[in-house]
Structure formats: structure tokens, C-alpha cells
């Protein structure tokens, strides 16, 4: 099984790896208008937890999305992110560790 280099690039930054860990428990983020378990976590909450600018948070999430590790749902002007558990399971099996 081969994965594109984008997967390993995405996993190669400690903050992106931390974000994937945080998204395991979307309920740990502040409440949103719609439950994070259903629509994902709003970028503004990810940004706040990561303590980075909005543009940096957007770049982190775009990298994770290009690697198919997260999916994005747009609700109005906001982007909400969820882990792609199927893809993460495939990557985890390949590298021999859980993400």
C-alpha cells in the first residue's frame, strides 16, 4: 500500500499532528451552533487551540485535507473539519501506530 507524499508531509508537523489528535474528541472544543460531532469543528476553534493565526490554521487544515486526513464542511462563511477515520485507519496500519 502506497500513500502520496502529502500524507507524510501532513503528519510531519507537530501542530498538524496535534490537530488530528484533538479532532478525535470534537466535544472537547467550545460549543457551536451545530454539534461538532455532526458537522466538524469550526476552524476558529482549531485556530484558538493551536494558538496560531487564522491564515496559519487554514494552511494547516488545507494540508491535512489534501492528504485526505480530514474533510471540510462549509456552513455559511465557516469551515468545519472532521477526521476521515477510514483514511486515518489505513495510514495507521501502514505506519504501525494509531493517529
UniProtKB/TrEMBL annotation:
<dbReference type="InterPro" id="IPR011991">
    <property type="entry name" value="ArsR-like_HTH"/>
</dbReference>
<keyword id="KW-0804">Transcription</keyword>
<dbReference type="InterPro" id="IPR036388">
    <property type="entry name" value="WH-like_DNA-bd_sf"/>
</dbReference>
<dbReference type="GO" id="GO:0003677">
    <property type="term" value="F:DNA binding"/>
</dbReference>
<dbReference type="GO" id="GO:0003700">
    <property type="term" value="F:DNA-binding transcription factor activity"/>
</dbReference>
<keyword id="KW-0238">DNA-binding</keyword>
<dbReference type="InterPro" id="IPR001845">
    <property type="entry name" value="HTH_ArsR_DNA-bd_dom"/>
</dbReference>
<dbReference type="InterPro" id="IPR051081">
    <property type="entry name" value="HTH_MetalResp_TranReg"/>
</dbReference>
<dbReference type="InterPro" id="IPR036390">
    <property type="entry name" value="WH_DNA-bd_sf"/>
</dbReference>
<feature type="domain" description="HTH arsR-type">
    <location>
        <begin position="1"/>
        <end position="99"/>
    </location>
</feature>
<keyword id="KW-0805">Transcription regulation</keyword>
<protein>
    <submittedName>
        <fullName>Transcriptional regulator</fullName>
    </submittedName>
</protein>
Amino acid at each position: 500500500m502506497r500513500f502520496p507524499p502529502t500524507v507524510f508531509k501532513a503528519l510531519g508537523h507537530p501542530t498538524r499532528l496535534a490537530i488530528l489528535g484533538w479532532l478525535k474528541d470534537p466535544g472537547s472544543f467550545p460549543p457551536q451552533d451545530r454539534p461538532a460531532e455532526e458537522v466538524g469543528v469550526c476552524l476558529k476553534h482549531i485556530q484558538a487551540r493551536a494558538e496560531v493565526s487564522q491564515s496559519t490554521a487554514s494552511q494547516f487544515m488545507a494540508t491535512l485535507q489534501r492528504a485526505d486526513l480530514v474533510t471540510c464542511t462549509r456552513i455559511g462563511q465557516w469551515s468545519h473539519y472532521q477526521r476521515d477515520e477510514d483514511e486515518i485507519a489505513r495510514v495507521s496500519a501502514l505506519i504501525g501506530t494509531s493517529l
